[in-house]
Amino acid sequence: MPPRRRVPVAAGREALAVCRSAGFSADRDVTATAVRYTLEELAAVAPGRTVEVRVPPHGAAQCVEGPVHRRGTPPNVIETDGATWLALVTGELSWQEAVDSGRVRASGQRAHLQGLLPLVPLDSGVAQID
């Protein structure tokens, strides 16, 4: 069962567009909406509970099929800030560049999102969320 959508798609796409046009420096509320929307998209594109993606203070999502984590700190955690996350999901920053520069912290053998980013929305044939 896919996760329940909390951010309406139209609102999420609008917030993402605003953030992108502001160089990923939009105000906190708009950034939070864009981050939550894209985390929901990630969970829909890669359902599962093997990897936890954290973008404090805006949100977190579990994704990627594999061994299920149920209690305590997940073994595969990815953490980054809102601006880096949005740059990753839009393709403005590559996964490898983000990891190499320290903008993404990833711990665990399966803690990577290569091949999943930039995000492709499920409800359109568009190559990237626009």
Explain this structure.
The protein has 130 residues and is of the alpha+beta class. It has helices at residues 9-21, 28-45, 82-90, 95-100, and strands at 51-55, 59-63, 77-80, 104-107. It is globular and about 35 Å long.
SSE blueprint:
Blueprint: H1 9-21, H2 28-45, E1 51-55, E2 59-63, E3 77-80, H3 82-90, H4 95-100, E4 104-107
Helix pairs in contact: 1-2, 2-3
Work out the strand percent: 5-15%
> What's the number of extended β-strand segments?
4
Strand order of the largest sheet: 2-1-3-4
The first-to-last residue Cα distance is 26 Å
Mean pLDDT, rounded to whole units?
88
Anisotropy-based shape: globular
Which residue ranges are poorly predicted, with pLDDT under 50 across at least 5 consecutive positions?
A: 122-130
Our count of helices gives 4
Oligomeric status: single chain
- Helix and strand sequence: HHEEEHHE
Rg over CA atoms: 14 Å
Helix content: 25-40%
**What structural class is derived from the secondary structure elements?**
alpha+beta
Largest sheet: 4 strands, mixed
